[in-house]
Amino acid sequence: METFETLVRAEFAPKRTFLNTASNGLLPARTVAALNEAVLTRAEGRPLTGLHDDVETCRAAYARLAGVPVTRVAAGSSVAAYTGVVAASLPAGAEVLTAEDDFSSVLNAFHVRGDLKVRAVTLERIAESVRPGTALVAVSAAQSADGRIADLAALREAAREHGARTYVDFSQSAGWLPMDAGAYDFTACVSYKWLLGPHGAAFLTVPEDFGGLTPVLAGWVAGEVPFDSCYGPVTRLADSARRFDLPPALFTYAGLRSSLELIEELGGVDAVHDHDTALADRFRDGLLGLGHEALPAPGSAIVSVPGLGARQPELERAGIEVSDRAGNLRASFHLYNTPADVDRLLDALSG
To answer: Are strands 186-190 and 165-169 parallel, antiparallel or unpaired?
Structure first.
C-alpha cells in the first residue's frame, strides 16, 4: 500500500530546495507526462476530443475539492478575468469592501471601473467593516504577501447581516486549506500554485441562480452545446455555470487533470494541510531560535519574515528557492517539502 510519502517521492524530484509554492507549485511527474502526451496529440494531428474531456474532468475534480455541485463551477484561465466579470455586475456607485494590500487580481477590476466606491481596511477588520450599503466584499482566503488567513466565517455572517455579496479568491489556499466555496456567492482560484497544475487554468464558482452575473466574456464554449455555438451570437448559453467558461488552454487542463487526481490519491486536502502546516510551524519555531519572528499568520502554510527579504538572492545561489515580498522573506511549504528542507533554510539563515 502506497503511503503519503511514497506517493510524493514517486512524483517529485526537485533539484533544489523549493520553498516557493506561493509563487508556483512544482509539477508532478504524471502531470509532465500528460502535458507531453497532449503536445504529441496536437503535433501528430490526432483528434482533440480527449483534451476537451480533460476540462470536464478537472471541473468535476475541482467541484469536489470546493464542496459544490459541478453545475456551479466555471472553467477559465485567470482570476483577474473572473474578477472582471464580478465587477461588471455591480451598479454604478456600489460599495466594494476589500483588504488592504490584497493581491491585485482580486482588486483591480473594481478600481478600473471608475464608478464604484472601493473601500480598503486591514484584513483583521474586514468582517467588522461590512456595513449597510456594502454591495460586495472581495478578499483572498490567504494573503499572498504574508499568509494571513481571513476569518471567512465571520465575514460570511457579517455579509449576510447587511445583505452584501461575497467574493473569495482561494488561489493561495486551495490545495492545502479546506474550503467550502458554497458558503460564498462567488469564488475564484488559479491552478498553478497549491493545486500543482500548469499555468493557464482558473475556476469560478457561482450560485445556482448565477448571483446576478452576466457572462460578458462568453464565447462559443459558453453555449449549452458549444460546437453548435461557433458562428453568430450564442443563441443559448449553458444552463449551468459553464456559461462563464472561457476558451480553455487545453494543454494546461490535460496536465491539471493528473495533478488534481494526485491530491485526491494523497488523501485530499486534510492530509496535505497537516503536512504543510507542520513544516511551517517548524520553520516559525526555528526562526525564534535565530532571533527572528515571523509575521503573525497562525495556521498558515505561508511564512513571511520581516527584514530578511534582501537575502533571497544569496539563498537562490545556494539552491534554496524562496521569495522577497515587500522586504520580507516569504517561504511556503507544500506536500513535496520535508523537515530537512526547513532545516536547510534555517541553517542558511543562521550563517
So the answer is: parallel
Task: Tell me what the mean pLDDT of segment 193-212 comes to.
Answer: 98
Closest CA to 108 of 131, 129, 128, 79: 79
> Identity (one letter) of the amino acid at 236?
R
The set of cell numbers assigned to 223 is: 453555449
Cα-atom radius of gyration of the chain, to the nearest Å? Answer: 21
Q: What's the pLDDT band for 326 if we cut at 50, 70, 90?
A: confident
The whole-chain average pLDDT of the chain stands at 97
CATH number belonging to domain 4-26+268-350: 3.90.1150.10
Question: Residue 1 pLDDT more than 80?
Answer: no
Q: Which CATH number fits domain 40-265: 3.90.226.10, 3.40.50.970, 3.40.640.10, 3.10.290.10?
A: 3.40.640.10
User: What is this structure's pTM?
Assistant: 0.96
The C-alpha atoms of residue 259 and residue 28 are separated, in whole angstroms, by 7
Strands 328-332 and 302-305: antiparallel
Residue (of 178, 170, 189, 172) closest to 20 by Cα position: 172
Phi, psi of 121 (to 5 degrees): -135, 170
In this structure, the strands spanning 117-121 and 134-140 are unpaired
> What type of residue sits at position 158?
A
- 3-state SS of 54-117 is HHHHHHHHHHHHHCCCHHHEEEECCHHHHHHHHHHCCCCCCEEEEECCCCHHHCHHHHHHCCCE
What 8-state DSSP symbol labels residue 348? H
Q: How many CA atoms lie within 13 A of 62 on its CB side?
A: 33
Give, for 118, the enclosing helix (H) or strand (E). Answer: strand 117-121
Cβ neighbours for 74, distance < 8 A, ≥ 6 positions apart: 82, 203, 204, 205, 206, 241, 242, 243, 244, 245, 246
Q: Apex CA 196: angle with CA 190 and CA 199, to 5°? A: 50
Q: Pinpoint the residues of the chain covered by CATH 3.40.640.10.
A: 40-265
In the chain, % of residues over pLDDT 90: 99
pLDDT digits (tens, 9 = 90+) for 94-106: 999 999 999 999 9
